[in-house]
Amino acid sequence: MKDQIFDGDFFKQLENISLNVRMLMKEGAAGGRKSKAKGSSVEFSDFREYTMGDDFRRIDWNAYGRFDKLFVKIFMEEREAFVNIFIDSSKSMDYGELKKSTQALKISAILSYLSLNNYDRVCINNIQDSSFRNSTTFMGRNMFNSCINYLKEIKFEGNTNIGESIKKKSFYAGGVAIIISDFFTKGNLEEIVKYLIFKKQQVILIHILSNEELNPELQGQIRLIDSETQESKNIFITSQLLNKYKNHLKEFSNNIKEFSKKLGADYIFVSSNDEIEKVVFENLIKLDVIR
Fold first, then answer.
1. Please, which pLDDT band fits residue 40 given cuts at 50, 70 and 90?
2. What is the rounded distance in angstroms from the CA atom of residue 289 to the CA atom of residue 283?
3. CATH number of this structure's domain 2-12+80-286, picked from the four choices 3.40.30.10, 1.10.760.10, 3.40.50.410, 3.30.559.10
4. Distance between CA atoms of 203 and 189, rounded to whole angstroms?
5. Averaged over 16-28, what is the pLDDT?
């Protein structure tokens, strides 16, 4: 996956941008974000033992000489953000000639890279049914390959209830919650966003639909089969029915966009056919999700 996403030029462009975290960090160890703690970014606060991925520039070599262990300095204002990426891994995401699932994994990889590059902590949560499976917490640039390996193992099957799954997750105050889904899910999505905001999360919704869903080329008598429940229905497709479908789909997307804006969440719409460069340098930057 890394080779598919990052050619040399694209990789260099990512070096100079990061996830735009607007929440002020209250918790967490040394990192690249500003916290609500008093003091300046050069005001020393404490030591902690070095962990893989920490910035070498923070190592206190005097402490190493005394204790024969590596310690890093923690400053009053600097904290890492805790970024939770929730991936809808239901069967409906595995749809389209250019699959929604592939686009979701690519976007997850890029957002993970940008976060790790800024010394934020990243946890990937793949949601299925009413539960989720989560990765270990990744931190530091050298953990990106581990992140990619976890993404490669995600299987898209079954159905999903995003709300019930997310309520089982513990959150750090002042973190970032990113949900990547087609949002064909059980439960009330608006209530999910309200819950995350109550948990003091900056919420980012990334809505992915396939070209076949946006511009269906169907006509005549067909049998539709739900990919998640296997329920089927025989219908006769007419141009009037297609227009009605498109209007409902537009209303569905606009509703998510409207309540996201009202609640202060970010909403990004993406087609599975969109080039990943467009997703990053137009969709995400334009909406100030990354900068």
1. very low
2. 9
3. 3.40.50.410
4. 12
5. 60
Angle, CA 91 vertex, CA 83 and CA 285 arms, to 5°:
35
What is the identity of the amino acid at 112?
Answer: S
Residue ranges of E strands in the chain: 33-34, 44-49, 71-75, 78-79, 82-88, 121-128, 131-134, 138-139, 175-181, 201-209, 220-225, 232-237, 266-271
Domain with CATH 3.40.50.410 in the chain: 2-12+80-286
The H-assigned helical ranges of 153-227 are 162-166, 189-198, 211-214
Rounded-to-integer distance, Cα 157 and Cα 38, Å: 47
Strand partners, 202: 176
pTM of the shown model: 0.79
Place of tokens 């056919």: 273
What's residue 122's pLDDT? 95
Any idea how long the chain is?
291
What distance in Å separates the CA atoms of residue 30 and residue 35, rounded to the nearest whole number?
Answer: 10
Residue among 228, 187, 231, 214 nearest 273 (CA): 214
